[in-house]
Amino acid sequence: MSTSITIHETVASRVLTGRGAVDHVPQEVGRLGTGRVLLVATPSAKAAADRVAQGLGARLAARFDRPAAHTPVAVTAEAMAVVEAASADCVVAIGGGSAIGLSKAVSARTGMPQIAVPTTYAGSEVTPVLGETKDGVKTTRRDPALVPGTVVYDPDLTLTLPPGLTRTSAVNALAHAVEALWSPTASPVTDALATEAVGGILTSLPAVLDDVADPEARGRLQSAAWLAGLCLAQARMGLHHQLAHVLGGTFDLPHAELHTLLLAHVMAFNRPAAPEAFARMERGTGGDPVVAVSDLARAHDGPTALADLGVPADALRGIAERVAAAPYPNPRPITVEGVAGLLDGAWHGRVPG
Ligand code: NAD
What we know:
Family: Belongs to the iron-containing alcohol dehydrogenase family.
Structural class: alpha/beta
CATH class of the largest domain: Mainly Alpha
CATH architecture of the largest domain: Up-down Bundle
Strand content: 5-15%
Number of helices: 13
EC number: 1.3.1.32
CATH topology of the largest domain: Dehydroquinate synthase-like, alpha domain
Bound molecules: nicotinamide-adenine-dinucleotide
GO molecular function: alcohol dehydrogenase (NAD+) activity; maleylacetate reductase activity; metal ion binding
Pfam families: ADH_Fe_C (PF25137), Fe-ADH (PF00465)
Organism: Streptomyces jeddahensis
Distance between the termini: 41 Å
Radius of gyration: 20 Å
């Protein structure tokens, strides 16, 4: 009898991709057999939301334009009051992980079907995960019913993402694929998705940063980020995500920027223990993946060190102790000294190596 069984679970969703795909949302609402739409959109997605609202006509029951990062339950309560007053029976969310998180929270409370139209590369639209915050405490639940049944990837909606947000959001996506490669729950499917995602993100992101208004390059980056989102959905994440959760939760740090400055440090830390993951990343990038990610992070015009984000130096040891006390599965064994060394490098913004 084998002692190492791999389990791969796929979550079903219908995915539309391509320029102008957002104009198919009203048709997709029709497929659901529902007729009273709650339209959730961040202010950044107002123009697209207005177009969808126009296409929905009388089927638009209500709009909600105040989703917030980390899905605070107080904001969900406000949205639920709107749902009830309008008798909404499905939710369309246009925006980044914040808008899609709110859509999942509403669906979790009502069973309403969801259509997600992502405008960043965060990947929440394809995951069965919802993280909610109450009184500063984040709790996460995982349930296949949370995955939006329909996802609409329209690269034109990402054209307005400024270079800084483009870079950090894409590196956030890259982190899902990198950690899937060294995950103990990796399968042949996640290996294939992650290898393609790493290569796709690292080759298309520089082209997008050269011309953020190039819809073809945006489309390639969005597709690679979709694959990375599927990695997050299907493989357990390791040290990188644990550090992002612990640091982000403790100091209320910006999600994508934190991922961007940490990732190369974690990759350098794990390299000796993850030769197969690195062989795949090298095939995908044609070079040294740590250097590629470190260069991307260091070229960011926002914070490139934990010190710049306001993390106090004297808190690092305590963070290392918390991480080492209950580590996420990671290829290199976690020790307080090891994590403290990694955090020291990230705090100073040193080049990892
Ligand atoms: P976000 O949705 O908060 O958006 C960040 C900022 O970018 C906002 O100010 C938004 O208005 C702006 N923005 C979004 N799209 C834009 C566009 N096309 N043009 C211009 N501005 C735009 O951030 P995010 O990084 O997409 O998502 C982060 C949130 O999602 C966090 O709460 C995180 O925990 C959650 N998340 C959850 C999962 C999951 O699987 N549950 C996965 C990834 C992220």
